[in-house]
């Protein structure tokens, strides 16, 4: 039975054979046809040879979560052939390179095999190893165009846009597409029952990954100093920032209105960020779990000495090195309470590349307003995969919230300046920057200090400052982005609460559960410390399913610690093996508990 | 207990510098170091150097790590922003602050534990970046604040207060700096203000990282027999090869030395460093002969002091990065944000 | 009204004037008289000149907690004179150096001033600045001997023991004692109504600090490798270990049966410990908060690669540098969940130097048995102050629990060895050591691995290992030292629960509260993960007061997360200004809540 | 996916070494590095060196940090304990393991990012301790595993794949090692097995830390024009000054070279390293001339390879610490615990 604009296929290739451009081409083509699409790149922690997969989901309903149902598999990697065959859904299709006979493995009866002599075709048509390898990928794009009815004009246009200046390259790419297309048309009885049909659902959207959008957010926020040490999956955030700065932040004579410091490690990177913020710049560092672990001491300094800092934690599968090219939400607890002693940090939790853009800006405003480190926790799935999101908008009237920074004029007026006095009763003291005014001078230290900024070893003076900082952080609870909330299809005592990248899976699951008559109210927290709404939501429901991607239920832990609700009512739903969460994970988790209950 | 601010008695007799400030205006709070600590002498020299150069204190940022040495920034330049940070990580803070605002004068104060033990990596990489700053390493061969353990600068065979001998090669900050391509390398002795002050001044005028290793005896834990960082030892074995003499842009140079013993190096701001030489063959602008000479004297158990190396064509971090003249912190937001129109244009790329 | 063997006095001097030996002499003398005594050294984070205080509490009831009531003050530091005068209890005494006239400050009418011309006396009797400064301290010992009736024969004996080989030194010390003694006798109408009288309560006890006893524990545990980077207040632990090793671990020809590595920083120190443990040694590192923050990444590696490691966290007042010479319990949360990703670590919480000795040994047994890092959390008060504790005992039949380490013989037998298989169903796999047997070889990695020890990026294989590790750690809950429990004087719905160094204050408070008719059942947790008894205790009481020394109630947080009890029933009692906790803090906290309730 | 073990086909023709093992027995799992990666050539040389020395694989511990280079220990000595640890921290693990058990052979594999960027501090301090181990730095001037950013070893002016030029001085591992007092310093090229194998063998025989910097082109990110770490560049500018030739204790030395060009260095285990010299004036036992010569050639844009420096009187970490002969891990508990009687005696001190 045919399914239009609602199916998923997966492409299995060895790493480093250049399939990514082919997959990008597919994504864009479908997107340009106005059909909602998402891609998940499942790649290894190596540079060449190990297996890699690219998953493309087409969904007229606009679902972006990963699916576990693959209608069509392009099994182009001998290493994983068996595994890949097994993954095709019953009555699905499998495309393979028929240049060589099918592997001895018993063929699946419930799967239709589609042989395309990819190697043979390209070897005939192209010279040179490199070109043949690359064109083989483009050839399968052609075959898929036929099988899935991808608009070939769109593909042609895309190739023009990409290779406009390199006609030779364009021709060979077009040739490869045509080869694949013709073969599929004539030999495989294309199209398949699952295929595309033009829609008009993407014109206000873009395809973008969260690292790129966060890098762009830093540019729009007016960040001028970025310090980093490369680490997967955060690397492309700084590369994005650099790219946009080269475009937007250079004077006619090529001088830079930004500074990017490639530090020797993460301890230095966060140190540079704190130094730059202390001097008055908006500064940030992108990293991942291992980097956060190394930044602990410095984060404590920034917390206690009250210096802004923006840290992007693009989470990967931990602890330790773990699986660097797989996703997880394993740093929720660490970031909330990083460093020794009593600390508590503002955290932001984007759920997709659009929020990754917006929250980058929010992060700088909060960091400077509250004079404290702010963590933006995304993950590999949000950061490195191409998501379809509504176009980004920018309000030109936006001006940065630099917080309470005294100007030279204000200092000139002031009788005397004390760094850590709670003048306004909001727990936020006034700051000064170096080089502005003699009266602004003060001594920053991570050692004991009193509200005047003087060194102290006195318990009352010490506690006084620490209590104020605690109040200050609590006040941030109402300043972080409010939770996203959606009422259930009908009144219910059940709630579903999640964070970050699980959003797509939860939204899809809620729809499907509703079809089964199971209604849940939904909340997605977007910032920490949690605002009152969160406790209210938990209080308002008998059972709240807490959906997250880590082993120990870290979001559930944060909710327990911060809202004081009885933990018993928080029912944990987790998947944390490294793939993005799917609606099926959520549904299974919820149903299991409900059945038990029933 | 909050710090005790020194009574600011302005005796009219106190001489004023070009911007009308007295030495007092360059002081900080009362030192809480041990009486006789070498670090206090260095503080005095720093005060003198800034005063003589007439640098407005509030245009200075003074940063340090953790240690007795790292406490000293509280004791000078009351009106400068100070940052007593975490152990061994001052160089990163200084690099970041400098990237944000290259218009103020940076002085980083560190100890041998702070820079050569826990901070060894950051020390090396700050030199590599050639951050425009004066980097003073107050070197006593021990961890003073934690009561006298050997630091990485403790000399082989030198004995601790508890009587143990150090078995490892010391790390020599100056040799390390030269090997890392430092553009300004000097060594002095806390007790030798006449030599130290001009070196500090030259370091402040240098565009790039000016590394100054100052032997600074720890009277409490490392000023005994058998310590090569003791007052006695340093006084005896201190060999001065090059005496730096700093001349601000204004004045012109009076060549009142026998030629051949005099070498003039022009600084980026047009000022001059005049190097009076005691060792004829020594060329303070040659990195390799400098290295070789330090090693040679070391083999004789001598501590070579003076301005050991200076690169006239130093390219500091900002020059290398190609940042705009205006300090980044002073760029108006409007000149940093591309605005919505650009954003919409840009997004064509993402379809 | 007179009080015998139940009072407290405090000695205020500038740092670095050598008063510590005088104070030690006082402590020992009182102890030798058979009277229970504790001393709290309140010193600054500098080497010379800043204020320092030494507090001595005499308690026939054997209370060891810090008191806030000082009967007698030796105000010998001009810097803090005002503050010190103010601290004497009403109708108390103040001893000052009458060489110079009393400071202009208005004298307190309710305090008796005792002038002793200390400087004058010693300047007359001794030459040389150094000797005069030192003897001035010994002179006040003499004065106190008269005022408090400290047995002068005991003092004489102590001086003999100390200076037996240096008669000159002994004579001058004795002379100084006599000077002070005579003066007080003749001019001050000694003894005071508060004074000592011989008892017989200390013969089975010793005076020792927790760092020394932990260092000794490491020797008895058979630790051979210690790696460290100096940091207050942990430094004396390694110094202790070194001292005892020099005494017990050297061959005739002076060769060492131990290795102490002074690392370049804490990252290196923990790395050395993990390397040494991996190679088969019992290895440890002592540090404090900032060091723990720096060890995060390595701790995660040891957790996931399952390598033993023993880490002593002698806690100080944090975050950041904080007050390095003040005490706190600020690292409870950090140590329990250190590093990025999902982790959970075994923690031990000694309450005094005796447990600091015992738990050092326990730590190695647990680390090797469970193949994971173990934290021993003491604090500055336990680690650096002299406590009176029962004599240490050693069971010579003790043999280390090296855990599941396969010998060459066992490997010879084995068909094949897989590092991470749960052979026995207890979640603990088998280990091998390098250089033992070819069959024992395996590849240790912090990156994704499966139960066979192979590299993996497969979600099921990855999760399988992480789940087992989680089970393993949970099993440790029954292996850590069981909580200390004491029933209330009568049946009660109120509980008091604490950890570590708060024990003394709690025990004393319980007695005093009982006198006021307030009964509470008491539990002190001694290890993490918590055993079932802990949840049972919480369930069994309507309200449980949780007493701890940090701002954010970290023990309360751990209890909430780990037992799942409704947080509301856990009522937090905290003091965290840097001084050790006193019974008064506990009583005030408890009564405040009870009054509110009533 | 678990690793794919190579089929262990024992072709009888495979020659056996003194302990009856073939090269195959010194191999590991199949490499997952890029085809043509210099690191794989180094792996081959390591296999050859261990095989030639007839070291039982299980008596070896192979440690590394994180990076493409740090993955390679999986590819050799299947029967040795391996440890692919965390980024930049291999030296600390190696020092600790060595302290616990000095009886096995240690090889540490690292990259230029792993050792000269994040691991710079640990690298320096391991050298200072003179841990008895072979330390191989597989130097490609980039961070391979994170896709080609400059490492601290990237040469000034060398351009990245994205076309940017590096503005900073490179850190030269060999100069750094010499300055830190390393007792064995060598440099080679992954493509030059004939030179590399004997150097590795000498390093394994050396008692102390043997530092070997191996230029190892990254074919994917740093083997293009303008990269001084490319195959082409290294082949052209590689100047061999000293060819090491290792002779196990058994065999005696046949001096089949014109005297003057031959220098024999006796190793702690009685074996010899025979240094055949190409540059007459070069003395591989003089740290300072070594340093100067490397610098001199560098100025000519040449990469000096060979055994650059070896100290015949090297005192390794254990010698310095004065530990017992028996490895600490083998000391019976009974010989470590003083027992209760001693404990009771001791406590008199605490009354
Ligand atoms: C992370 C960390 N580790 C250890 C310490 C303890 N500590 C404070 S100062 C110091 C050494 C200082 O030595 P140096 O830098 O030579 O300064 P000095 O006191 O000798 O002038 C140490 C180890 C610390 N503050 N932070
Ligand atoms: C703490 C930490 N930071 C960053 C990374 C990411 N990372 C992995 S390998 C690597 C650089 C490797 O470079 P190099 O040591 O030269 O090895 P190569 O791949 O070039 O052989 C980096 C930055 C990490 N794994 N851990
Ligand atoms: S301990 Fe040493 S370094 Fe520290 S203040 Fe005293 S003399 Fe100076
Ligand atoms: S990326 Fe470079 S270093 Fe890494 S495996 Fe490929 S060629 Fe080797
Ligand atoms: Mg020092
Ligand atoms: Mg590299």
Walkthrough of the structure:
The complex is a heterotetramer, with two copies of chain A (598 residues) and two copies of chain B (351 residues). Chain A is of the alpha/beta class and 598 residues long. Helix content of chain A is 39%, strand content 20%. Chain A is built from 19 helices and 23 strands. Chain A has a seven-stranded mixed beta sheet, with helices on both faces. A six-stranded mixed beta sheet of chain A has the order 3-4-2-5-6-7. In chain A, helix 12 (353-370) links the parallel strand 14 and strand 15. In chain A, helix 3 (118-125) packs across helix 4 (129-148). The longest helix of chain A has 21 residues, at 167-187. In chain A, 63% of the residues are buried. By secondary structure, chain B is an alpha/beta fold. Chain B contains eleven helices and twelve strands. In chain B, strand 5 (142-143) and strand 6 (149-150) form a beta hairpin. The longest helix of chain B has 15 residues, at 38-52. Chain B is globular and about 75 Å long. Residues 1-10 and 253-260 of chain B have low confidence and may be disordered. At the A-B interface, helix 1, strand 9, helix 7, strand 11 and helix 9 of A face strand 1, strand 2, helix 3, helix 5 and helix 11 of B. The structure holds thiamine diphosphate (TPP) (2 copies), iron/sulfur cluster (2 copies) and magnesium ion (MG) (2 copies). One iron/sulfur cluster binds next to loops of chain B.
What would the principal axes of the Cα set say about the shape of chain A?
globular
How much helix is in the residues of chain A? 25-40%
- Termini Cα gap of chain B: 62 Å
- Structural category of chain B is alpha/beta
Oligomer: heterotetramer
- Strand % of chain B is 15-25%
Supply the number of helical segments of chain A: 19
Enumerate the strands of the largest sheet of chain B in spatial order, edge to edge or round the barrel: 2-1-3-4-8-7-12-9-11-10
Count of separate DSSP helical elements of chain B: 11
> Which overall shape of chain B is indicated by the principal axes computed on the Cα atoms?
globular
SS content category of chain A: alpha/beta
Characterize the main sheet of chain A. Answer: 7 strands, mixed
């Amino acid at each position: 039975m045919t399914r239009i604009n609602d199916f998923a296929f997966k492409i299995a290739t060895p790493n480093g054979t250049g399939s990514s451009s082919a997959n990008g081409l597919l994504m864009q083509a479908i997107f340009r046809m106005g059909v909602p699409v998402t891609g998940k790149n499942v790649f290894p922690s190596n540079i060449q040879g190990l297996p890699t997969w690219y998953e493309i989901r087409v969904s007229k309903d606009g679902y972006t979560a990963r699916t576990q149902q693959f209608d069509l598999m392009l099994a182009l990697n001998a290493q994983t052939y068996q595994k890949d065959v097994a993954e095709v859904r019953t009555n699905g299709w499998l495309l393979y390179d028929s240049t060589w006979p099918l592997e001895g493995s018993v063929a699946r009866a419930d799967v239709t095999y589609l042989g395309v002599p990819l190697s043979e075709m390209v070897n005939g048509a192209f010279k040179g190893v490199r070109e043949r390898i690359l064109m083989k990928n483009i050839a399968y794009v052609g075959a898929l165009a036929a099988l899935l009815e991808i608009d070939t004009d769109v593909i042609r246009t895309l190739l023009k846009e990409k290779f406009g200046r390199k006609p030779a390259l364009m021709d060979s790419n077009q040739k490869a597409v045509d080869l694949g297309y013709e073969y599929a048309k004539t030999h495989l009885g294309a199209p398949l029952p699952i295929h595309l049909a033009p829609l008009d659902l993407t014109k206000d959207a873009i395809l973008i990954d969260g690292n790129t959008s966060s890098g762009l957010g830093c540019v729009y926020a007016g960040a001028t100093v970025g310090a980093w040490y490369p680490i997967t999956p955060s690397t492309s955030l700084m590369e994005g920032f650099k790219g946009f700065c080269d475009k937007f932040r250079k004077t006619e004579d090529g001088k830079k209105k930004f500074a990017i410091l490639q530090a020797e490690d993460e301890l230095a990177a966060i140190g540079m960020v704190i130094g730059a913020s202390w001097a008055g710049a908006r500064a940030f560092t992108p990293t991942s779990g291992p980097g956060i672990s190394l930044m602990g001491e410095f984060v404590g300094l920034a917390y206690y000495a009250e210096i802004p800092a923006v840290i992007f934690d693009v989470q990967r599968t931990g602890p330790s090195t773990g699986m660097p090219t797989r996703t997880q939400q394993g740093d929720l607890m660490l970031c909330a309470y990083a460093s020794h002693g009593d600390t508590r940090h503002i955290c932001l939790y984007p759920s997709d590349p659009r929020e990754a853009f917006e929250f980058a800006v929010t992060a700088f405003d909060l960091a400077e307003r509250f004079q404290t480190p702010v963590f933006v926790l995304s993950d590999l799935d949000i950061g490195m995969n191409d998501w379809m999101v509504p176009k980004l908008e920018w309000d030109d009237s936006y001006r940065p919230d630099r917080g309470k920074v005294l100007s030279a004029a204000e200092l000139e007026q002031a009788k005397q300046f004390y760094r850590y006095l709670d003048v306004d009763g909001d727990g936020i003291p006034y700051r000064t920057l170096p080089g502005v005014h003699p009266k602004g001078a003060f001594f920053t230290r991570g050692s004991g200090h009193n509200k005047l900024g003087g060194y102290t070893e006195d318990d009352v003076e010490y506690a006084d400052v620490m209590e104020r900082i605690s109040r200050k952080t609590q006040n941030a609870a109402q300043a972080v982005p409010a939770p996203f909330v959606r009422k259930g299809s009908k009144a219910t005592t059940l709630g579903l609460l999640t964070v970050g990248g699980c959003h797509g899976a939860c939204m899809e699951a809620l729809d499907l559960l509703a079809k089964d008559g199971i209604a849940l109210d939904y909340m997605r927290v977007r910032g920490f410390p949690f605002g009152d709404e969160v406790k209210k939501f938990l209080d308002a429901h008998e059972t709240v399913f807490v959906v997250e991607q880590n082993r120990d239920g870290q979001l559930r832990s944060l909710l327990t610690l911060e809202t004081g609700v009885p933990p018993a009512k928080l029912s944990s739903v987790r998947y944390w093996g490294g793939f993005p969460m799917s609606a099926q994970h959520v549904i299974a988790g919820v149903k299991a508990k409900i059945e038990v209950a029933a | 207990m909050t710090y005790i601010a020194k009574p600011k008695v302005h005796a009219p007799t106190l001489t004023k510098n070009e911007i009308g400030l007295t030495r007092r205006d360059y002081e900080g709070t009362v030192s809480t170091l041990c009486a006789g600590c070498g670090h206090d002498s260095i503080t005095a020299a720093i005060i003198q150097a800034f005063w003589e150069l007439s640098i407005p204190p509030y245009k200075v940022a003074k940063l340090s790590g953790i240690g007795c040495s790292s406490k000293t920034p509280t004791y000078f330049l009351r009106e400068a922003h100070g940052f007593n940070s975490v152990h061994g990580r001052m160089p990163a803070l200084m690099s970041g602050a400098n990237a944000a605002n290259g218009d103020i004068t940076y002085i980083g104060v560190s100890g041998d534990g702070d820079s050569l033990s826990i901070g060894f990596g950051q020390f090396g990489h700050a030199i590599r970046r050639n951050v425009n700053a004066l980097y003073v390493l107050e070197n006593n061969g021990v961890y003073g604040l934690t009561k006298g353990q050997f630091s990485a600068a403790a000399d082989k065979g030198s004995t601790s207060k508890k009587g143990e001998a150090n078995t490892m090669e010391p790390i020599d900050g100056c040799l390390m700096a030269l090997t890392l391509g430092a553009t300004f390398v000097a060594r002095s002795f806390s007790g030798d203000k006449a030599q130290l002050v001009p070196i500090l001044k030259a370091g402040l005028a240098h565009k790039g990282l000016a590394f100054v290793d100052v032997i600074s005896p720890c009277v409490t834990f490392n000023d005994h027999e058998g310590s090569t960082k003791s007052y006695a030892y340093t006084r005896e074995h201190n060999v001065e090869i090059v005496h730096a003499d700093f001349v601000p842009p204004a004045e012109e140079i009076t060549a009142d030395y026998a030629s051949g013993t005099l070498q003039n190096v022009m600084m980026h701001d047009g000022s001059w460093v005049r190097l009076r030489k005691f060792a004829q063959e020594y060329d303070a602008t040659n990195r390799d002969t400098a290295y070789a000479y330090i090693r040679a004297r070391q083999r004789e158990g001598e501590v070579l002091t003076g301005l050991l190396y200076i690169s006239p064509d130093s390219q500091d971090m900002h020059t290398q990065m190609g940042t705009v003249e205006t300090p980044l912190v002073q760029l108006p937001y409007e000149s940093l944000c591309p605005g919505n129109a650009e954003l919409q244009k840009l997004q064509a790329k993402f379809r």
